[in-house]
Amino acid sequence: MVARDVEGTIAQSNDRQIVVAQRTISKKRAERIKDKEIDRYAIIGFDFSDDKVQGANARLIERIRQKVTIASTINVVGSTDRMGDAQFNMDLSSRATSVAKALNSNNVNVTAIGEPLLSTGP
Question: Which uninterrupted H or E stretch holds 28?
């Protein structure tokens, strides 16, 4: 029997037994093997024409803050819909900045996307 792992290492057994060591994230950390853990949060909603973090969103951000470490890199992308004036929507994409402030972390990258970048057709 021959087995190959994702790194291309080959193991061969004439006895039809191959010892397999499972390497989990916790084992990697214990062994100090380089890895990343990525958490994604898809939607934080806001009230119409508002950029304040409140209610359920504030609780979600608090849960996220509890997971943030000094080594964390946080990317916040704020966008709006196409309703209303394009410049108003661009200004309203400051919601990303509001979320970044609520996270209260030093390593936050903020990207605000307004209506012109949301266009999907000609």
Answer: helix 25-31
